[in-house]
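Q: Could you predict the 3D structure of Glucokinase?
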Amino acid sequence: MRRHCFGEKIPMTPFSIGVDLGGTNLRIAAYSQDLGLLETILLPTRLAAGRNAVVDDMCDAILRLLKTHGAGRELMGIGIGTPGPLELPEGKLHSPPNLPGWDGFELRRRIEGILGQQVTLESDANLAALAECMLGRGRSLGIDSLCMLTLGTGIGNGIILGGRVWHGTTGMAGEAGHMTIWPEGPACGCGSNGCLEMYASATAVNRLAREAIVADAKGIAALADMPGGITARELAKLAESGDQDAKGVFDLAGRALGIGLAGLVNTLNLPLYVVGGGLANAWDLLSPSLFAEVHRRSYVYRLTQPGGAAANGTRIMPAELGADSGLLGACILPFTLADRSPIRSTAVNV
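A: Sure. Here are the predicted C-alpha cells for Glucokinase:
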C-alpha cells in the first residue's frame, strides 16, 4: 500500500449533486463516479406554495446530501434539470408549461444565493439525452453523439455532440417536439399547428384514443369507462390483445415519429437516435410504422441504415435508461463540464 507523506494531499473521491425539477415531483440525488447514485430524496413539488417554497425545499435537500455524503469527497458541482424553454447561461425560465408562474424566474441566481455554491442549469430533455449518451445506449455502442426524443406529456428533445449538449445560440436548441408534421393538424400550445407532440406524446395518444371512440371504437370506449380511464399503458395492453382501433392509435403515433425522425436524420446525420419516455415502452407497437416512414422519407437513413452502403450505420433505438435518466443526467453534468466523463464509471446504481 502506498504511504502518504506528512503534508501530502490525499486525493478525494469526486461526487456531485443532481436535481430533477418536475411539475409533480422534485428529486435530488448524490452521485459518485464509482458507486452511482448514493442517495435520492423524493419530494412533492409544492407549486401551490409558490416558487420560492419549491426552491427552499430543493436547497434544504441539497444541503442535507452535502452534509451526509460530502465528508472525504470532492464536490464536482450541482446540476439542475428543469422543464424548458430555458435561457442559458442566465438560467432563466421562459413560460415552462408544467411550472405556472415561473416565467422569467432567474432560478440559477436564486439557488446560488441560498447555497453559496455555483450551480449549472440545463433542460431536463438535454440531461436525459446526456445520461443516455454517457450511461445508456451511447456507452453500450461506444458512441458520443446522439439525438434523443423523450415522449411524455409533450415531447422533449436533446442533442449531444462529442459528449456535450448542443445548445444553439440562446440555449433553446432541441425543440423537435414542435416540428410541423401535418400543417392542418390540431393547434399546439406553442402557437403552431400539427406539431410532432400533438401526435406522438402520451397526451396526444390519449386524445387520439378519444377521437377513435367518437368513430365507434368499442374496445377503447370500454377502457374509458374503467376507473383508471385511458392511459397509454392500458391502451398498449389493449392493442397487444389485438384490438385494431388501439393498434391504429399507436400506428398513427409511430408514423408521426417516423416523419419527425426522418427530418432529424436528414439534417443531423448522427450515428444514433434514441426514443425514451413513458410512451417508448410501447416500442413494439410504435416501431413498425415509425421505421416505414423513416425509410420512406429519409434517403440518408436508406444509405446509412445498418447493413446499408455506408460503413457506419444510422441506428434508431428505444432508450436504455428508465425514468431516472433526467436525474442521472443532472448528476453527471458536473463531471462532463470538468472533462471527467462518467462514461468511465463501471457501476451505475439505478
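Q: Anything worth pointing out?
A: DSSP finds twelve helices and twelve strands in the chain.
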